[in-house]
Design a protein that fits this description.
single chain; Heat Shock Protein 90; alpha/beta; five-stranded mixed sheet; Rossmann fold; six-stranded parallel sheet
Length: about 400
C-alpha cells in the first residue's frame, strides 16, 4: 500500500508521509501494479484517516494507492486536477463541510465518484449528501472492510453508468438537433421547385393562355397540381415539426377571437368537406372571451384538426366544432363521425409520424404529423390536448387553453 499525504501547509505530518518544500509527494512504499485502485481520502482528522486506511487494508482481493488531503482547499485542488477511482470525503474538514467540497466539485457530475464519510454524531447527513451530489454515504462508526469494499464497488459502477448515460444523452441531443436542422433545410429547399410545379400546373389546368388541345392535358395538369398541394402540406408539416423540436418556432401573443378563427378555418376546409358530402357545423357559447395566443398557431391547430376530421370521416358523415368555457378554461373540440382510433393506437397517433391502424380499404394519405404538431403547439400555450375516440363511431379532439390565457374582456 502507498500513502501520499497532501496538506494545506508543507510541514511533515504524523505517519511518515508528507510533502517536501517543492510540493512533491513522498510515497511510503513502492507503487503497486496497474490493478491498483486509486483512492483519494479527504479528512480533517488524521486519526480518522488512519482508521479509514486500516479499513481499506482489510478489503480482500484489492490493492489501493491512497492519496490524502486534510482540508477542503487541498481536497479541492487534488480532485480538481486529478481523477481517482473513488474519493472518500469526511463531513468535517477542519471546520468546513465536506458537503461544500462535494458541491464545488460538481457532485455526481464530478470526474471522480464521491462518497461522504460522516461522524457518528452527524445524523441526517445522508439526505444532504445525496442532495449535494454524493454517490453514497457511510457512517465512520460503522466502517469495516466489507462495507467499504461494497460501497466503493457500487460507487464506481454507478458513476460509470451515469457517465455513459450522460454521453448517450449528449449524443442523442446532438443527433436530434442535426436531424431537425436537416429537415428544416431540406423542407425549405424542396419548397422552391415545388412552388414552380404548382404554379405552372395551375396555368395549364386553367388554360390561362388558351386551350391546351386534348382535355387529357388539363386533367393531368389538375392531378399534378393536387399531388403538389399534398406534397407541400407534408413539407410544411415537417418544417413546422423541425422548428418546434429545435425550439425555433417563436410565438407572437395577441388577443385572438376564437369564434372568428373557427369560421376562417372552416372556410379553408370547405372544399374538401363538400367533395366528400360531409356536414359541418360550429357551436360557440355566447360571450366567450378572447385568448392570449399566437393567431397563426391557433389557426394551424384548428385547420389540422378539421383536416384530420375530413380525412377520416366517410362520405355522408358529420363534423362539429365547438368552443366553450369549462371550469374556467377555454375548450375547443373538433368531433367527427369517422373511423375512430383504437385504444392501443392512442399513444402512437400523438407521436411524430405515428399513425393508427386503419380499416381495410380506408387508407388515407399523410405522414402522421397533424396531431403531434397540434399537441406541441397547444403545450407551447400552456394548454393541453385530449383525445376521445371509439372505432367506427368517431373521434373528439379537445384543446384546452388555461385560465391565465383568457382575456379579461370579451368581444362584443
Amino acid at each position: 500500500m502507498v500513502v501520499h499525504r497532501i496538506q494545506k501547509n508543507a510541514a511533515d505530518q504524523p505517519g511518515g508521509a508528507g510533502v517536501d518544500r517543492t510540493g512533491a509527494t513522498i510515497p511510503l512504499r513502492r507503487r503497486p501494479d496497474r490493478a491498483t485502485l486509486r483512492v483519494a481520502i479527504v479528512d480533517g482528522r488524521y486519526e480518522d484517516f488512519l482508521l479509514t486506511r486500516r479499513s481499506l487494508q482489510r478489503v480482500g482481493g484489492s490493492r489501493f494507492l491512497i492519496t490524502y488531503a486534510d482540508c477542503l482547499e487541498a481536497g479541492y485542488a487534488l480532485l480538481r486536477n486529478d481523477v481517482f477511482d473513488v474519493a472518500l470525503i469526511a463531513s468535517d474538514l477542519q471546520g468546513k463541510s465536506g458537503l461544500e467540497l462535494i458541491r464545488r466539485l460538481g457532485g455526481r457530475a464530478a470526474a471522480t465518484p464521491l462518497i461522504l464519510l460522516a461522524g457518528g454524531g452527524d445524523s441526517g447527513l445522508d439526505a444532504e449528501a445525496m442532495s449535494a451530489g454524493a454517490i453514497d454515504y457511510l457512517d465512520k462508526s460503522e466502517l469495516d472492510g466489507s462495507v467499504l469494499e461494497r460501497t466503493i464497488r457500487y460507487a464506481r459502477h454507478t458513476h460509470a453508468l451515469e457517465a455513459r448515460l450522460h454521453v448517450a444523452l449528449r449524443d442523442a441531443s446532438q443527433a436530434n438537433a442535426a436531424k431537425s436542422d436537416f429537415l428544416a433545410r431540406m423542407s425549405h429547399d424542396l419548397r422552391t421547385p415545388l412552388n414552380a410545379i404548382l404554379g405552372f400546373s395551375e396555368v395549364v389546368r386553367d388554360q390561362m393562355y388558351g386551350p391546351v388541345g386534348s382535355t387529357k392535358y388539363a386533367e393531368y395538369a389538375s392531378h399534378i397540381y393536387e399531388s403538389g398541394r399534398h406534397l407541400l402540406t407534408l413539407i410544411d408539416g415537417i418544417l413546422d415539426l423541425s422548428r418546434i423540436e429545435a425550439g425555433r418556432l417563436e410565438l407572437t401573443p395577441e388577443l385572438v377571437d376564437i369564434a372568428s378563427v373557427i369560421a376562417e378555418a372552416m372556410r379553408l376546409v370547405q372544399r374538401q368537406v363538400e367533395q366528400k358530402g360531409l356536414g359541418m357545423a360550429a357551436v360557440a357559447d355566447a360571450g366567450i372571451p378572447c385568448v392570449v395566443a399566437d393567431r397563426r398557431a391557433v389557426m394551424q391547430i384548428l385547420v389540422n384538426l378539421l383536416s384530420n376530421a375530413v380525412k377520416y370521416t366517410p362520405v355522408g358523415g358529420r363534423i362539429e366544432i365547438a368552443a366553450r368555457l369549462v371550469a374556467g378554461e377555454m375548450c375547443v373540440t373538433v368531433a367527427d363521425s369517422g373511423i375512430g382510433i383504437a385504444p392501443e393506437d392512442m399513444e402512437t397517433v400523438l407521436q411524430p409520424f405515428g399513425q393508427g391502424r386503419q380499416p381495410s380499404g380506408s387508407r388515407q394519405e399523410g405522414c402522421g404529423l397533424g396531431l403531434s404538431i397540434v399537441k406541441s403547439l397547444i403545450e407551447m400555450h400552456d394548454g393541453c390536448l385530449e383525445v376521445e375516440s371509439r372505432p367506427y363511431v368517431g373521434t373528439a379532439v379537445t384543446i384546452r387553453f388555461p385560465r391565465n390565457r383568457l382575456a379579461a374582456e370579451s368581444l362584443s
